[in-house]
Amino acid sequence: MVLNLKQLYDIVGETEEIDYVVDTDRLAEIHGYSFSGNTCVKGKAMNRAGILTLTFSVTFTLKAECDRCLKEFDREFSFDFEHILLKESNTDNDEYVITEGDSLDLDELVISDILLQIPTKLLCSEDCKGLCFRCGADLNDGDCDCVKQ
Questions:
Q1: Residue 70 reports pLDDT greater than 90
Q2: pLDDT value at position 4?
Q3: Using CA atoms, how far apart are residues 36 and 24, in angstroms rounded to an integer?
Q4: Cβ proximity of 8 and 46 under 8 Å
Q5: CA dist., res. 44 & res. 118, Å (int)
Q6: Would you state the pLDDT for residue 102?
Q7: DSSP letter at 8?
Q8: C-beta contacts of 46-52 below 8 A and 24+ residues apart
Q9: What is the pTM of this model?
Q10: Using an 8 Å Cβ cutoff, are 6 and 99 in contact?
C-alpha cells in the first residue's frame, strides 16, 4: 500500500486512518519466513505542529519450525510501531523515516519493522526440551533410552 502524504505534510492537524492487509505476494518475497493468514495493519498518520507521525499496530501469524525440536507450529504476533516521517534530512539518523516525494511504501516499512521484531530463536513453547544430542529423540515426548552421564 502506498500512502499519499502530500495533504498530511501540507495541513497541520490533518490525520489519515490506516486499516489494510499486507499483500500476500509481498510477504512471500521474505526468505526464511512463512506467514499464514492475513497480516493486518491498523493505525494513523497525523501532522501535529508540522511533525508527521505514523503509528500503527501489526498482527500476523508466523508458520515456523521450532529451533529446539524441529516441529512446525504457528505463533501469532502483535507489534506496535511509531515513526516520525520527514521529506528530507540533513543528518544520517535512523530515528526518522525519510520519504521520497509525497508518498511512502507502507508495505516496505511494515515488513522491515516486522523482520526487526521477530525473535531470532523461535520455540514451539517456552519449556521445549528439544532433541536428544545422541539419538535425536524428541524429549518433549518422553525420555530417550540413551545412557545418562
A1: yes
A2: 87
A3: 9
A4: yes
A5: 23
A6: 85
A7: H
A8: 46/8, 46/13, 46/14, 46/15, 46/16, 47/8, 47/9, 47/11, 47/12, 47/13, 47/14, 47/15, 48/12, 48/13, 49/12, 50/12, 51/84, 52/5, 52/8, 52/9, 52/84, 52/85, 52/86
A9: 0.82
A10: no
Which amino acid type is present at position 63?
Answer: K
Q: How far apart are alpha carbons 70 and 102 in whole angstroms?
A: 45
Cell of 57: 499496530
Residues contacting 105, CB < 8 A, separation 6+: 1, 2
In the chain, domain spans: 2-117
As given in the structure block, the three cell numbers for residue 135 are: 539419538
CA torsion angle for 96, 16, 43, 74 (degrees, to 10)?
A: -100
